[in-house]
Design goal:
This protein is an alpha+beta fold. The protein is built from eleven helices and twelve strands. The strands form three sheets. The chain has a five-stranded antiparallel beta sheet with strand order 2-1-5-4-3, with helices on both faces. A five-stranded mixed beta sheet has the order 7-9-10-12-11, covered by helices on one side. The structure holds adenosine-5'-triphosphate and magnesium ion.
């Protein structure tokens, strides 16, 4: 069997994905922005320190005096605090102070220094070598002439380290979040599909039980969907139960009906056997009864086979265009002898010619059953009127008689298999109680309908309605 996707697994994957997306998106951005923010803050801070220092040197007239120890101490301190190297360059481009004490007395010429002598303060970032160079002019005491430059190269390596350690902490947090996310998603996915498992378990449980015995009620109403499935299941199970019941009833009826003629054959045969010397006339009489029982058994089996065949093949009728007037007339002709025997008048009223798509043999059988009943359950000298009419969509066959009629309470049962109103009388008339069941089955397979109107001791009318065009 092909491995099916599990809803639980899908939900789990979905939740994990939803939880991860925002993290993945923000991850790169925050790292980048946090580095930039820290860098900008650092630059601003160092720059302001640089400005203050340059102003201080201007105020102290540092370049006017040679080597002011207080100012130099401040320069050293500033360099120490910001991990920087500070140079003070005079108007001859000679370094007068280097906190690294490497370049004092040497000439320092660079674009930044030149530009600074022209009055511009500069900031140059060298991210590759992790430092920033600030240049700031130093003025003479009255602040009119630039007579020196303060050059400060501050390291920014620390920022990278800080960001790295922050990133490491973030990654640790992220890892923890992923673990929590996986656990949460697994739990949630499981919880969400529990009603489905519950449904499957309940239905399985019901499937093991006998559908016919207990009416299964599955009720998993955690979700609207599971409620719908439960309802659908209950309906199907109920239908199956009803079907099963009617099947059992049918089987028990069949066996009962088949046993009855056999039982009378057995009684007749046994009494002949045990009687010893029997006159030929009695012998003949008993054998005739046995023969009649065999005929009856044969009749029941034939009817049953017809019914089973119609049930099984309903849907694949042998449909052809038929003249219904002819069909009814022929059927009536076949039944004329039994009508005459009972002195029952047979009349056909055709209101119009009707051509329709039907299964000729089956419809003949259905009509024949109705007319035969109307004759059989009639009184001597009674009548049977068959009429045929049609509108643009349907044709109607009506079989009316003024016979014994069917009691009100029996009317809803006459179409059931083996049902007979008066069992003793029907046996007399040789019925099996399958005729109307067969008729109804045939009419339904033509997508038609059959209705009954009857009054006891007045008569019965069966009305059949069938579409002119057979609907596939
Ligand atoms: N026209 C009718 N008038 C009075 N009762 C009828 C009529 N048609 C049917 N019934 C009653 O309905 C019962 C069922 O009819 P159905 O045709 O199914 O069986 P049946 O005639 O007894 O046997 P079968 O037709 O199989 O030989 C009959 O036994 C009879 O009691
Ligand atoms: Mg009948």
């Amino acid at each position: 069997m092909k491995k099916k996707l599990s809803l639980q697994a899908c939900l789990f994957a979905l939740f994990v994905l939803i939880g991860l997306i925002p993290m993945l998106v923000t991850n790169g951005v925050t790292e980048r922005t946090s580095y930039q923010t820290l860098l900008n803050e650092h630059i601003a801070e160092v720059q302001s320190q640089c400005v203050m220092m340059a102003n201080q040197l201007t105020k102290d007239n540092y370049l006017g005096k040679a080597g002011d120890p207080a100012a130099e101490a401040e320069l050293e301190m500033l360099a120490g605090v910001y991990d920087a190297r500070i140079l003070v360059i005079n108007s001859n481009y000679v370094v007068v102070k280097d906190t690294f004490s490497l370049a004092e007395g040497r000439t320092s010429i660079s674009d930044a220094v030149f530009s600074c002598f022209a009055g511009n303060s500069n900031i140059e970032t060298d991210e590759e070598n992790d430092y920033i160079v600030f240049t700031r002019p130093i003025y003479n005491v009255d602040g009119t002439v630039i007579n020196g430059v303060l050059l400060m190269s501050a390291s920014i390596a620390q920022i990278g380290t800080t960001v790295d350690s922050l990133a490491w902490k973030t990654q640790l947090l992220e890892l923890m979040w992923v673990i929590v996310l996986v656990i949460l998603s697994a739990v949630l996915a499981r919880v969400l599909v529990i009603p489905l498992y519950k449904l499957a378990v309940t239905i399985n449980h019901m499937a093991i039980g006998d559908v016919a015995v207990d009416t299964p009620i599955v009720s998993v109403d955690d979700y609207r969907e599971t409620e719908l499935i439960s309802d659908a299941y209950n309906k199907t199970a109920n239908r199956l139960r009803i079907l099963d019941e009617s099947r059992q009833e049918f089987v028990s009826n069949v066996s009962h009906e088949l046993k009855t003629p056999l039982a009378s054959i057995r009684v007749l045969a046994d009494s002949l056997l045990s009687a010893g010397e029997v006159p030929v006339e009695l012998y003949r009489e008993f054998m005739e009864d046995i023969s009649a029982s065999v005929d009856r058994e044969q009749q029941i089996i034939d009817d049953l086979l017809t019914l089973v065949k119609i049930d099984r093949t309903s849907g694949d009728l042998n449909v052809t265009q038929e003249n219904i007037n002819d069909l009814i007339e022929n059927t009536m002709k076949e039944l004329l002898p039994i009508a005459e025997k009972k002195d029952v008048e047979l009349v056909l009223e055709s209101f119009r010619p009707v051509v329709a798509e039907v299964d000729r043999l089956k419809l003949s059988l259905a009509v024949s059953n109705l007319i035969e009943n109307a004759i059989k359950y009639n009184n001597e000298g009674g009548w049977v009127r068959v009429s045929l009419n049609a509108d643009h969509k349907y044709f109607f066959i009506k079989v009316a008689d003024n016979g014994i009629g069917i009691p009100e309470e029996a009317q809803e049962h006459v179409f059931s298999r083996f049902y007979r109103v008066d069992k003793a009388r029907s046996r007399e008339t040789g019925g099996t109680g399958l005729g109307l069941a067969i008729t109804q089955s045939i009419i339904l397979s033509h997508h038609g309908a059959i209705r009954l109107h009857s009054k006891e001791n007045v008569g019965s009318t069966f009305t059949v309605r069938i579409p002119l065009m057979y609907i596939q």
